[in-house]
Specification:
By secondary structure, this protein is an alpha/beta fold. It has a single domain, classed as Aldolase class I (TIM Barrel), CATH 3.20.20.70. The protein contains 10 helices and 8 strands. An 8-stranded parallel barrel has the order 1-2-3-4-5-6-7-8, surrounded by 5 helices. Helix 1 links the parallel strand 1 and strand 2. The relative contact order is 0.16. InterPro entries: Aldolase_TIM, TIM_sf, TrioseP_Isoase_bac/euk, Triosephosphate_isomerase, Triosephosphate_isomerase_AS.
């Protein structure tokens, strides 16, 4: 009932030539009847990738962040309306790298999600615990607090979001949560959504954290894992395509 979504987070990688080659290879290799697919290039490359994708519907365009403000004197920011103008359909908010390096907190993440929803863009809201928090038995409390900020602020619109569970200790480290560990957190998030929003059954919960061609099928077979947010493996077309194949 929930279509799987595989979203590639390119992070601060790419060049015009590399983006062109990657997008062409992904489009050429997509399996028939593929699951939903999105790619999230750096903001500067959004117009380029929009141009590369626009003749087709199989791969959607995403962004990695958005301003918390609507318009005005916010040097360096990119607004939700600007993303929308370039065909952006998804935008990541609350990625752990932004929480860590840009000190973004739950409230700011919720406001960013609100800006996106108002512009008709689907927020991919990232939640996830650090290794210390997992070892202290705080995993559920942390991810529930992070998700509650968004559901609280965005009320009825929240069934329009995508959630990504990304344990911080698994991102870019080659360490993946086991399917059982991931499923347990996804089930807890699903239960939280069921209380917080009508239509919670519609909300896709992606797993992210060193998902790759070798482990995707097992993770995606879990009942509450509705796709993946893919970092490193999204930069290589064959790897990204085999994850898409596992979700299709
Ligand atoms: C991410 O940054 O969202 C991510 C999941 O990265 P990786 O797949 O490289 O762990």
């Amino acid at each position: 009932m929930r279509r799987k979504l595989i979203a590639g987070n390119w992070k601060m990688n790419g060049s015009q030539a590399a983006n062109d080659a990657l997008v062409q290879a992904v489009l050429a290799g997509l399996p028939a009847g593929a699951c939903d697919v999105a790619v999230c290039p750096p903001a500067l490359y959004v117009p380029q990738v929009h141009g590369l994708l626009q003749a087709q519907n199989a791969v959607a365009l995403g962004a990695q962040d958005v301003s918390a403000h609507e318009t005005g004197a916010y040097t360096g920011d990119v607004s939700a309306a600007m993303l929308k103008e370039f065909g952006v359909r998804y935008a990541i908010v609350g990625h752990s790298e932004r929480r860590q390096y840009q000190h973004e907190g739950d409230e700011l993440v919720a406001i960013k999600a609100q800006r996106l929803l108002a512009a008709g863009i689907t927020p991919i809201v990232c939640v996830g615990e650090s290794l210390a928090e997992r070892e202290a038995g705080q995993t559920e409390a942390v991810v529930k607090r992070q998700l509650a900020a968004v559901t609280h602020l965005n009320g009825k619109c929240v069934s329009e979001i995508v959630v990504a569970y990304e344990p911080v200790w698994a991102i870019g480290t080659g360490k993946t949560a086991t399917p059982e560990q991931a499923q347990a957190v996804h089930a807890a998030l699903r239960a939280q959504l069921a209380v917080a929003v009508a239509d919670a059954g519609k909300v896709r919960i992606l797993y992210g954290g060193s998902m790759n061609a070798g482990n995707a099928a097992e993770l995606l077979a879990q009942p509450d894992i509705d796709g993946g947010l893919i970092g490193g493996a999204a930069l290589k077309a064959p790897d990204f395509l085999s994850i898409i194949g596992a979700a299709t």
